[in-house]
Amino acid sequence: MIFNAAVAEAKRLQAQMALEASLSIEERILRGMLATPSHLAQQIARCVGRLLDENRPIRYCEPFMGTGPFYSALRWVVPREAIESATGIEIDGESARAAAGLWSGEGVRIFQGDFLEALDAQPPLARPNLVMCDPPCFKPEQLKQSYKLQLQDRVMKAAGIRVSPLAPYYVYAFLLAGEWMEEGGLAAWLVPAEFMSSKYSDPMRKYLVERTSLIRVHRLDPRTAGSEDVWISSAIIIYRKVLPKKDSKVLFSFRGPLSDPVISQEVALGELAGNPLWESYPFVRVRTEEEMAGGKKEGK
């Protein structure tokens, strides 16, 4: 059967709506079931698609898969034969069953369970060279103390990084997934924009500067995100898992689609390393009325 990306996405949205029908937005937040808007997943997939090596088979993973918005978006961009393997990880049983019904014919392996369980799966899951995901934003007080200690221990063992007990869940997931990926792989994460300046996100920013070639950070405007589920300011992080070059630059942008942001700025990696407040990028200096008046006088 010929694959039709539009039809597949329509079926996925139908399945998503069925899962959400009996849940309020508050319940979905508590369960980490906020769906990534289709248009946003497709923007990210198109941007990532331009960075893929056509000669390197894709080993894809979508942690926190839900019904698979990013895999669906990926299939708009690349043909099935370019994907050597694909894995979705989902802890919610209903969502995992829905994803299996949608994508098993595509050869996607659905692992139902916690992300840590997936990392320890036997037989092991294929290490991905492409990760796209929107992790749940569980607050630290939502995590059981024993589980939080387990997360801290795993990050320390995997990456040698100490994470604050005040960190939300996505910080641990980001660091663990980064260490799990193959060298040279690509990753795209949709996370709260607070990562750009919060103290407990220091390990994320340090990891991006020192251990990856950070390509893009795009901050969304929640007023124009186009979905009730984008209830906080979010940011898209795109990086390649290779050590950075000292003279490399990172593109920061704000508002609008990834392909045509309203504001953008290239920032030197060295500047990023010394600035704990990434939310200051992209920086666009607005001239005051006095400066503009002075400029006019000088021009006469």
How would you explain this protein's 3D organization?
- The chain is an alpha/beta fold and 300 residues long.
- The chain has a single domain (5-299), classed as Vaccinia Virus protein VP39 (Rossmann fold), CATH 3.40.50.150.
- It has helices at residues 5-20, 25-30, 38-49, 69-77, 93-103, 115-119, 145-159, 169-180, 202-211, 269-273, 289-299, and strands spanning 58-62, 83-90, 109-112, 130-133, 186-192, 213-219, 234-240, 249-254, 263-268.
- A nine-stranded mixed beta sheet has the order 3-2-1-4-5-7-6-8-9, sandwiched between helices.
- The longest helix is centred in the N-terminal third of the chain and has 16 residues, at 5-20.
- The N and C termini lie far apart (71 Å).
Unreliable runs? 225-231, 285-292, 295-300
Structural class: alpha/beta
The Cα radius of gyration reads: 20 Å
CATH class: Alpha Beta
**What proportion strand?**
15-25%
Helix content: 25-40%
CATH architect. name: 3-Layer(aba) Sandwich
Q: Topology as H/E string?
A: HHHEHEHEHEHHEHEEEEHH
- Count of strand segments: 9
Q: What is the terminal separation in angstroms?
A: 71 Å
For the largest beta-sheet, the strand count, sense and barrel status come to: 9 strands, mixed
Give the strand order, joined by hyphens, for the main sheet. 3-2-1-4-5-7-6-8-9
Name the CATH homologous superfamily: Vaccinia Virus protein VP39
Cα shape: globular
